[in-house]
Amino acid sequence: MVEYRIDRRSGVATYLQIVQQTKQALRMGLLEPGDRLPTAREVVEATAVNPNTVLKAYRELEREGLVEARRGLGTFVRATLGTGPADSPLRGELTDWARRARAAGLEREDVAALFTSVLKEHFEGDE
């Protein structure tokens, strides 16, 4: 099951953080079709966000066809994203790179900016 981490200083709306983290879990193979997402109550207890925020995120995921709400049962994954499993060899390489970046004194924001610029360079026009 996915555990949401809300960064109130990120400038990203809370419901979007939930959507993004769910999509990330789908891409990494941590969530698969048939898996149940945490209930709104469980997310509220773990993150102290408004229940309507959680429901808004789940409605967005449902609108995108990734999950479906089943009355009285919960919200379940309908589709997955990506093809890369969580245990991909590339993950190990990226982990090593992140360690080197941190050892070199880069801050999280520096690493994110560097990674984003490389993504743009290599995946321009794929969006």
UniProtKB/TrEMBL annotation:
Protein's UniProt keywords contain Methyltransferase: no
Presence of keyword ATP-binding: no
Matching PANTHER family: GNTR-FAMILY TRANSCRIPTIONAL REGULATOR (PTHR38445:SF7), HTH-TYPE TRANSCRIPTIONAL REPRESSOR YTRA (PTHR38445)
Gene3D superfamilies in the record: Winged helix-like DNA-binding domain superfamily/Winged helix DNA-binding domain (1.10.10.10)
GO molecular function, one term: DNA-binding transcription factor activity
Protein name: GntR family transcriptional regulator
Domain of life: Bacteria
Domain HTH gntR-type: 12-80
InterPro entries assigned: Tscrpt_reg_HTH_GntR, WH-like_DNA-bd_sf, WH_DNA-bd_sf
PROSITE patterns found in the cross-reference section: HTH_GNTR (PS50949)
Keywords for the protein's UniProt record, in alphabetical order: DNA-binding, Transcription, Transcription regulation
